[in-house]
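Posting for a labmate who doesn't have an account.
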Amino acid sequence: MEPVLRPRTPRGTRTTDGRLALAAAAFLLACAGAEPVSEPRPVAPPGTSDRLDIVDRAIEHHGGELFEHSRVRLTVASRSGSFDVDSTTDGDRFEYVIRASAGDDQREYRRDNAALEVTESGESMDMDEREQVRAESYVNQRMYFLFLPYKLNDPGTFKEDQGLEEWNGRQLHRVRVTFEPDSSAGADSAYIYWFDPETARLEQFAYDYSAGTGLRFRTLRNYRRIGGLLFYDADNYGLNTPDGGLTVDDITPAYVEEELPLVSRVELRDVDVESLAQ
């Protein structure tokens, strides 16, 4: 299973996987008129940065502030099936709705600032703590990949500038990303992102997960700008082993060609963007 990373956390509130009661309490306090307390951003470890110019430029190139004031509806399709996403972000408030199907049952995940609700065949599901964490992971995983590179400036996301690297005759700007420990179910994963040094467009990315038992590498294609936001499809290469030892730092053009088979192709279909900016 691919890593799970927390969704964009609204400024001034705190939500953590498996601890929805805290989020609900904060929401109720806000409704009662209490001012939320902003938490300081985690301090970046030595050799990393909280912000990098190439990442800032990439976010701007892909849509910038439009990410924060938009409603996006689309379908994500791959070999394993498809699911529909309805994502609304308006300043500090967000709502993610994911509708997936498994056989005859229809399951819907609805996540907002306050809580997560899961319904199946139109009926609300009662979940224990473990099921709640798994549902959070399902939502976080899908939303994280959908809006890259926007989420690379989330709090607790630490970036290391590794300079230029040649890929198939092109120079790409390489950035290694790690996360604040225990900030999410996938915080032990490491990522590498490659950007076009001129336009800052995200070209490809890779990550490891589950204590080095899994490795994924995605090359991006079919870029198109819709409603000011840049969308793309991806070819997904990967490798799994129960023995561990897989690390994103081993990724090179030769390693991809010799070791990583094509796992799936991910396509975004029926993309619709509604601006909420006033």
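Reply:
Got it, the structure tokens are right above this. The radius of gyration is 19 Å.
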